[in-house]
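Chain X:
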Amino acid sequence: MSDAPLTTQVGGNLYDALAPLAYADEGLQWPLALYVDALGLILEETAQLVRIDDDGNDGWSAFADPQRCPASYLNTLAQWAGVRYPRRMHEADLRALIDGEAPGLWRGTKSALLKMIRRYLAPGGVIYFQERTGGNAYALTIFTFAYSTLNEAAIRRELALQVPAGLLLTYEVRVGQTYGMVHGRVADYKAMKATWATYAAMYKAPPP
């Protein structure tokens, strides 16, 4: 006797439950097996999510796990976690964003703000983040450099949504260079003094 042509676990469970009706199924080219398997295709995805998986994870838990959540439900999970993200974000990046420090849980913290800003910077872009600016406990200064800022408007929009009420935020996009760029342009301190008259001039000089 051949095995029934079943492709889903739900179909297999239904077929086993209907075993008394399957006595002639093989001789008739498996009409019952094909029928219950078709029903199983509709329910299989849900069944896989609600049952305990092979690793012992509880049923339904995949919906709350950004690493196991099916791709088709990932946007819903992001919404549950309060995650704001650009639609261009790749699936793996979105999973990493939700996992661990979802903005909905950590909104307004320094780490969440830095992660948000970095999404709109070129790789390696520098973020200047100063709390208590000028000795004011409620003042916050953030700036990025023009050479690495990909979307200033998006950063400003996200900062307006995430920075806690009551903080005096200053965000700027500056034309300038980092100390790493300075070291790459001059050999030593003497050469730096010969190139720029002041630290302000050095700092605000256009990047190489």
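Chain Y:
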Amino acid sequence: MKVIITGGTGMIGNLVLTHCLNAQTITEVLSLVRKPSGQAHAKLLEIPVRDFEDYREEDHWFQEVKVAFFCLGAYTGQVPDELFKKITVDYAVAFAQALERNSPGARLCLLSGAGADRTEKSRTSFARYKGMAENQIAKLDLEFYSFRPAYIYPVEPRKEPNFGYTLFRALYPILKIFGQRFSIRSTELAKAMFHVGLYGAEEQMLENKDIFRYTGNHE
């Protein structure tokens, strides 16, 4: 089985990538990156991408792909709004369109977010842009699944991107008490994405509480 992933150097993408490399059923993994990470594995081919909005000259990357993971993203406020929209919507849709052109019917798992608004009317850019991406990808000839996690607790220590994430990390023990609607561990989310990538899911849009049904160890 051939898998393609973008965002494989990020918090969730890297965990998904590791599951793919360890899975016996997966024989080839293409990881589209901004710059080489230096990671080496017999199954892994890292491909630096010049333009995440246009793959027409690189369509061969997407041929004979069974499963794709789009885990590339940016945090709200981390980049200007125009670039945030480009990464969230345009990059995701271009990736999905390239997959449809070359491997129609392939399974695509998108890392979206809680509150994604498919009416595209939300005043929050994050919700509006995530909804836009979901709407456009859902129209394609793909087996599409969108993951909408709430707060993602980073299991591996990291430098938090802003004060809000620093605060949420401190409050995680309290959030966890409120159940499966409000938070999820990074390792749990990655396991669920990997499992759905291999086996599919009952629903197309997986909210935080839905994701937990697919967090078992299925390697």
